[in-house]
């Protein structure tokens, strides 16, 4: 019967040597739980940040569009008042001219 050397037994490890022990399994499970918690918190923070940015964008757009509408309305009012003043001036010029024509 031949004698086995230490090298031969190291070359073919037994299945038990590849499996982690109980302490190592518990440590790996704790690490995995910690990573999972960190992933959950990170995703929650990213989701909240995304909602906040979207809300801010909507609010800013509403402010911008209402400001544009107010500016357009003010411009239209100013234009209408200017045109009204010009029309009134032209109307007054015509009536003044006819009055002066009657006087002279």
Layout of helices and strands, plus pairs?
Blueprint (H helix, E strand, L loop, with lengths): L5 H6 L3 H4 L3 H82 L1
Q: Could you characterize what this model shows?
A:
The structure is a single chain. This protein has one domain (21-103). Helices cover 88% and strands 0% of the residues. The chain contains 3 helices and no strands. The chain has 104 residues and is mainly alpha-helical.
- Low-pLDDT regions: none
Shape type? rod-shaped
The radius of gyration computed from the alpha-carbon positions, rounded to a whole number of angstroms, is 44 Å
Mean pLDDT: 81
H/E element string? HHH
Gap from first CA to last CA: 151 Å
Number of domains: 1
Can you give the helix content as a percent range?
over 70%
Instruction: Give the quaternary arrangement of the chains.
Output: single chain
Number of helices: 3
Residues in β-strands, percent: under 5%
Biggest sheet: strands, sense, closure? Answer: none
**Structure summary, number of beta strands:** 0
Structural class: mainly alpha
